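Lecture notes, part 5. Sequence design as translation. It can be helpful to think of inverse folding as translation between two languages: the language of shapes and the language of residues. The source text, in structure tokens, appears below.
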């Protein structure tokens, strides 16, 4: 795994020192936290600074559902502003990327809005709450967007990436570097359509929109099981709260195993902190 102790502990330290107006925690889903309006769709964070010289931005795009979060209700996506559980190690990796100069962006298909299953306001507030919860792990999300209709913004179309590129260009006169940018999402290899996952597992995803979004934008694609090191726990997808709870128990079990083997105390503490904080932030 990616130096879990160093990254996780650094992320927690960064979180403690962060500006509370950035990703302030919204406990009741009303769109406000500590009197400060939380992040809004398609607004670039003030934390984004222009690259040096003629360099372009590096952007890390993330899907939302089953990548950064799962619903508490068991629905495919949040059905209320507070129907959100964030997933293990996601905040840690996002914090690491920010420390390496990446712009962190969430791009999500939310077709339930046009289908009448939810509202635009609910989708926006639930994603803002997702961002707030990730902030508890030291992560800052600089931009988020979602596609509510089947149009040029819906993945695998590139509208959400194109709009962000325009906003970055408006701010700094440069777009993003496709060679160093990336996409992380669970919709990679569609069941009955695609060949196997790169590791040989049969295609079992509901969609391949995230992978083809990456292909169409011209950036690298990663599945969360690899990017967040879930594979080390034999976790390939997380689609429910029950699966999340089981994963957190497995993290605790690994910490117990390392302790019994006189493993690295910092790594053990980082694992325990990850599981404990996830339960606390998600009210599990």
């Amino acid at each position: 795994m990616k130096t879990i102790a160093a990254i996780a502990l650094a992320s927690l330290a960064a979180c403690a020192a962060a500006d509370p107006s950035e990703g302030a925690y919204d406990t009741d889903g009303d769109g406000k936290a500590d009197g400060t309006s939380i992040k809004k769709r398609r607004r670039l964070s003030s934390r984004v600074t222009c690259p040096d010289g003629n360099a372009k931005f590096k952007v890390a795009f993330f899907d939302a559902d089953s990548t950064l979060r799962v619903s508490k209700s068991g629905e495919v996506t949040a059905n209320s502003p507070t129907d959100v559980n964030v997933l293990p190690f996601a905040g840690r990796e996002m914090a690491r990327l920010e420390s390496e100069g990446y712009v962190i962006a969430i791009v999500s298909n939310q077709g339930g809005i046009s289908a009448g299953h939810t509202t635009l306001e609910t989708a926006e507030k639930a994603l803002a709450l997702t961002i707030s919860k990730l902030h508890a792990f030291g992560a800052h999300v600089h931009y988020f967007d979602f596609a509510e209709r089947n149009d040029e913004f819906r993945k695998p179309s590139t509208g959400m990436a194109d709009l962000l590129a325009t906003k970055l260009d408006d701010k700094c006169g440069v777009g993003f570097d496709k060679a160093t940018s990336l996409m992380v999402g669970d919709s990679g290899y569609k069941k009955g359509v695609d060949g196997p996952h790169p590791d040989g597992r049969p295609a079992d995803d509901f969609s391949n929109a995230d992978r083809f979004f990456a292909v169409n934008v011209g950036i690298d694609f990663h599945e969360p099981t690899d990017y967040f090191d879930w594979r080390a726990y034999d976790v390939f997808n997380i689609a429910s709260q029950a699966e999340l709870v089981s994963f957190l128990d497995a993290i605790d079990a690994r910490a117990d195993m390392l302790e019994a083997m006189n493993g690295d105390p910092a790594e053990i503490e980082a694992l325990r902190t990850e599981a404990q904080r996830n339960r606390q932030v998600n009210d599990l």
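The translated text above is only one of many valid answers, since several sequences can fold into similar shapes. The radius of gyration is 18 Å.
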